[in-house]
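Lab notebook page, bench 4
Experiment: in silico fold of construct C2
Operator: M.H.
Input chain length: 347 residues
Purpose: comparison with the prior construct
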Amino acid sequence: MFSGIQEPTGGVARYYRSDLGKNARVSNEITGYAVSTLLYFAEKTGSAQYRDAGLRAAHFLTHLAWDRALRTFPFEYSDNCDQPKALAYFFDCGIIVRGLLAAWRASRQEIFLETAIAAGHSMIGDFLAHTTIHPILGLPGKCALPYEPKWSASPGCYQLKSAMAWHDLFEETGEDCFRDAYEAALHAALANDCDFLPGVDDQEKVMDRLHAYSYYLEGMLPCADRPACRAAIRNGIERTARYLNQIAPVFARSDVYAQLLRVRLYAAHLGVVALDEAAAGNEARCTATFQLESSEKRFDGGYLFGRKGADALPFVNPVSTGFCAQALALWDDYQAGAFSASVHDLV
């Protein structure tokens, strides 16, 4: 898992360029996802190989990706000192912090917690403006970029997944600023819920927004005991499933199936809503159809990004692979009567 796109530095490439026979640039965000995924499966399987790869990726984040002068994680890593580090994304930073906290819990190496705390403070100071979270900053000045219509370049409920980093930091440190920042993000996300879907008329773009909306549902799991969040999760599961089933014959993303299945399982485990086993089983079967068997080691076992009609899209996506693999592992646990995952484990 991730072996074909993890560089010797520990950083993980955004994807593999099969046309050129080489990896794309190392992505700090994708490396953050890789840490969480590898350490989840290391714990689940007892694999030292997964653990070593996960901690190697975490060390890349603390020693190379973290910009100590700017106190942030730039969008992509570059070892070229003359190349400007032009952007920082709120979403990326939160995913990286959660990966570092997973590394801290797995190893108790102080550098992981120290960097996560520093990044969490910077996320508050750099991105949070009252009840709005700026999605993208220009570097080095850390000025918020103008918002754009596409969901990833505008504030929205999807940002709550990344804000889980603040919730997790509060649990580790007890610092009120982290709790307050998560609460501000939660308030803004709940207010944006009804407006986010469908958001556009184009069905394929609605499918993309389902991926983002699923981040919002995941981001509410830490407070699933609150009435407003319980209601939003129940309603969100129903809305996501309805749009997914409508649009899937035209365009389907593997990660949306996986994310919806994960939220269903967690919501049932947390007592939010009884599991619709027929729907969950169908989502598990659909998720599995995206997995590849290949003689090429880089692709074998990976999951395709999506499908248009009956045609698979030729992208083996590392994040989709992490989501799908975890969703099916959780489904297997549920079927075996052994589901006991923590929200911390959510990749």
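Observations: The chain has eleven helices and ten strands. The chain has two domains: 1-196, 199-347.
Next step: discuss at group meeting.
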